[in-house]
Design goal:
CATH superfamily: Homeodomain-like
Order of helices and strands: HHHHH
CATH class: Mainly Alpha
CATH topology: Arc Repressor Mutant, subunit A
Number of strands: 0
Radius of gyration: 17 Å
Length: 101
């Protein structure tokens, strides 16, 4: 039963993060309100504040998620790889991540 309940929680949290990313990208930290994020995510303000204590915590979470996306291609580097090939592979992966995001 707990697994079934975990999926909606993760979906709501993901919806909040996606909404926040879009709004922060467009309007910045100070130009975005918690109310706007909640409305775009389709959750109540109190529900959003259940996941994130305040707007700054939400902003930091968005930035952490973005950093993970940007760093993921670097984790694929191998010490045995030719440096030129490694850089070419990194660029290819980075472009794919940027295109898919």
């Amino acid at each position: 039963m707990k697994k079934a309940a975990a999926a909606p929680v993760q979906n709501k949290r993901a919806a909040v993060l996606a909404a926040a990313l879009g709004l922060f990208s467009r309007f910045g930290l100070h130009g975005t309100s918690v109310d706007q994020v909640a409305a775009r995510a389709g959750v109540s303000k109190s529900n959003l504040l259940y996941y994130f204590a305040n707007k700054e915590e939400l902003y930091v979470s968005v930035l952490r998620d973005l950093l993970e996306v940007w760093l993921e291609p670097l984790r694929a580097f191998s010490a045995e790889q030719d440096p030129q090939q490694a850089i070419a592979d990194y660029i290819r992966r980075k472009l794919a991540v940027s295109r898919d995001s």
